[in-house]
Write a structure and sequence with these properties.
- Helix 1 runs antiparallel to helix 2 (about 30-155).
- By secondary structure, the protein is an all-alpha fold.
- A two-stranded antiparallel ribbon has the order 1-2.
- It has helices spanning about 1-25, 30-155, 160; strands at about 170, 175-180.
- The termini are far apart.
- The longest helix has about 130 residues, at about 30-155.
- The protein has 3 helices and 2 strands.
- The protein has one domain.
C-alpha cells in the first residue's frame, strides 16, 4: 500500500510539473498554472507524508521488535528468578549435606575412639583369660593329682572294704531296674 501511495504521488507530481510547463508556454491561463502549482504542492506533501508513513511504519516495526525483545527479556528474567530459586534450594541442600558430613565425621571419630577402647578391653580380657586358663590348667593338674591319689588309696583298700562301696545293678527290663548308685 505504501508503494502505491508513493507511485500515485510521483505521477501527480509529474502531471503537475507537466501542467505548469504547458501553462508557461501560454496554452492555458494563469489560473491553470496556479492550480497546477497547488497540485504539485499537494503531490510533494503526499510524497512527504509517504516518507513519514514509511518512517511511522518503520517505527511501528521497531516498536514491535522492541516489544518482542522485552518479552524475551521478561522470560529471561523469569528464568533467572527460577534459577536463583533453584540455587537457593540447592545451597540449602549443600548446607544440610555439610552439616550431615560434620555429624558423621564426629561419629566416626567417636566410634574410632570407642573401638580403640574396646580393643584395649578385649586385650585385657584375653590377658585375664590366659591367667584364668593357666589357673584352670593348674587346677586340673591338682584335680588329676588328687584323683590319682584317691584311686591309689582306693586300690590300696582290702577287697572286703570295697564290697560295700560298689553294688552291681540288675535289670530285668528297660522300665524296671534295680540299681543303687551309692
Amino acid at each position: 500500500m505504501q508503494e502505491d501511495i508513493g507511485d500515485i504521488a510521483l505521477q501527480c507530481d509529474l502531471l503537475a510539473l507537466n501542467a505548469m510547463i504547458e501553462a508557461t508556454r501560454g496554452d492555458a491561463d494563469q489560473g491553470f498554472y496556479q492550480q497546477a502549482a497547488k497540485l504539485r504542492g499537494l503531490s510533494q506533501d503526499l510524497v512527504s507524508a509517504d516518507k513519514n508513513f514509511a518512517a511511522a511504519d518503520k517505527a511501528g516495526n521497531l516498536l514491535l521488535e522492541i516489544e518482542s525483545r522485552l518479552e524475551f527479556l521478561t522470560r529471561g528474567q523469569d528464568d533467572i528468578s527460577s534459577l536463583a530459586a533453584k540455587i537457593t534450594d540447592n545451597s540449602r541442600h549443600v548446607t544440610r549435606a555439610l552439616q550431615f558430613e560434620d555429624v558423621v565425621s564426629k561419629l566416626v571419630v567417636y566410634s574410632s575412639d570407642h573401638a580403640n577402647s574396646l580393643r584395649s578391653l578385649v586385650a585385657k580380657i584375653e590377658d585375664q583369660n590366659a591367667v584364668i586358663a593357666t589357673g584352670i590348667a593348674a587346677s586340673q593338674d591338682q584335680i588329676r593329682s588328687m584323683t590319682d591319689a584317691f584311686r591309689s588309696k582306693l586300690e590300696a583298700l582290702p577287697d572286703d572294704g570295697r564290697e560295700g562301696l560298689i553294688c552291681p545293678a540288675s535289670q530285668n527290663s528297660l522300665d524296671h531296674a534295680d540299681s543303687e548308685m551309692f
